[in-house]
Design brief:
Layout (H helix, E strand, L loop, with lengths): L2 H9 L10 E8 L2 E2 L3 E4 L10 H5 L2 E3 L2 E5 L5 E4 L1 H14 L7 H14 L10 E10 L14 E10 L10 E6 L14 H18 L3 E4 L12 E5 L3 E4 L10 H12 L3 E4 L4 H7 L4 E6 L3 E10 L2 E4 L7 H14 L10 E3 L2
Parallel strand pairs: 9-10, 9-15, 12-13
Antiparallel strand pairs: 1-2, 1-3, 1-8, 4-7, 5-6, 5-7, 6-17, 7-8, 11-12, 11-14, 14-15, 15-16
Bound molecules: pyridoxal-5'-phosphate.
The site of pyridoxal-5'-phosphate has 15 residues, from helix 6 and strand 14.
């Protein structure tokens, strides 16, 4: 079977369930990182007392490589993702990998696995991960001084393979994501959002929970929140309480260039409900790029957002970003780096 066929088949599977056959691996011990190597993907062997299993010393990144119109493969904003990855490591008291090392691990791995990069609308999802491996359940209050850093790749299709379906969100004022880890891309935040998200799905049929502690919009379990209209984009200003999305940042820069007013500030639930009468709302993140919101559930009432459909301005923003990623529009911001 040809490689192209293998990748084509992978795209028919659920998002993020198929992996390229190689990974990049480096270890940290006795105060130093080993040089990384590229090896076959296979299970790791780890002591059952490894720090990560007990004390959640784990962080990750999610970024994408895109096959361009001319066939070459480019990675999108790798430097920004590496910066965030290192920040996450620091906040979790894990050994901080050198930016150059992570860059080389991603670029050499992708170069070797370039055949795994699907054509548009597919992409090659890149997942760098760092975990604490110190075998010590006694280190409950201390950091892991041993770590494993690896990068795996997953060929993915369009997140919205069934078309751009509008999302339904529950606005939740009481619960929130792990408060001290808001800026850290760590499994703990996902674990913290899971229960609320599942309960909301059962009760209201919602796709995601929009956390709004004390009546102010924060983000969902895995995506940033934006209000979009013909002339404006409004989103929460950066603070340590939530994850600073690279997609969010990219959309704000593209929006500004389109002539939209960019407002980064607090958004109250009241303002959101007023906005929803005419404006559009969307969720941003690397995997789905930009998901349009069709309705909100708040205090047992359902509110339609705009027309209730995936918004026109939202679709326009999504295309503008995707066009840069796939090399259809000029990369004036310098976000792409050629790998293969
Ligand atoms: C990864 C993530 C996002 C989106 O970030 P991008 O860089 O745009 O992919 C938003 N919120 C949380 C909690 C995340 O973990």
């Amino acid at each position: 079977m040809s490689m192209t066929q293998t990748v084509e088949d992978a795209l028919k599977k659920p998002f993020g369930t198929v992996y390229a056959d190689k990974m990049a691996v480096a270890r940290y011990k006795d105060g130093v990182w080993t040089p990384f190597d590229i090896q076959e993907v296979k299970p790791f062997e780890m002591h059952p007392a490894a720090h990560v299993f007990h004390y959640s010393s784990t962080c990750f990144e999610g970024l994408k490589c895109h096959r361009q119109v001319d066939g070459s493969v480019h990675v999108f904003r790798l430097d920004r993702h590496i910066e965030r990855f290192r920040n996450s490591a620091e906040r979790l008291c894990l050994p901080i990998p050198d930016a150059d090392q992570v860059d080389a691990m991603v670029c050499e791995l992708v170069a070797e696995c370039a055949d795994w990069a699907p054509v548009f609308p597919g992409s090659l999802y890149v997942r760098p991960t760092l975990i604490g491996t110190l075998p010590s359940i006694g280190a409950a209050a201390g950091p892991s001084t041993e770590a494993l850093l690896f990068v795996i790749l997953s060929p993915v299709g369009d997140y919205f393979s069934g078309g751009l379906r509008p999302l339904k969100l529950l606005v939740e004022e009481k619960m929130r994501t792990a408060p001290t880890l808001g800026m850290v891309k760590t499994g703990g935040n996902y674990a913290a959002a899971l229960y609320a998200t599942r309960k909301a799905r059962e009760k209201y049929g919602t796709d995601q929970v929009l956390f709004a502690p004390d009546g102010f919009i924060q983000e969902t379990g895995a995506a940033n929140f934006l209000m979009i209209s013909e002339d404006r984009i409004v989103t929460k200003a950066l603070d340590p309480s939530f994850l600073h999305g690279v997609t969010r940042d990219s959309l704000l820069k593209i929006g500004a260039r389109m002539g939209k007013e960019i407002e980064e500030r607090e958004i109250s639930v009241d303002e959101l409900l007023t906005w929803a009468k005419t404006g559009e709302c969307a969720l941003s993140g690397t995997a789905a790029v930009l998901g349009g919101v069709g309705s909100l559930v708040y205090r047992e009432e359902t509110y339609t957002v705009g027309t209730g459909d995936y918004g026109d301005e939202t679709a326009k923003m999504r295309s503008a970003l995707v066009d840069i990623q796939r090399g259809k529009a000029e990369d004036t911001f310098g976000w792409l780096k050629r790998i293969s």
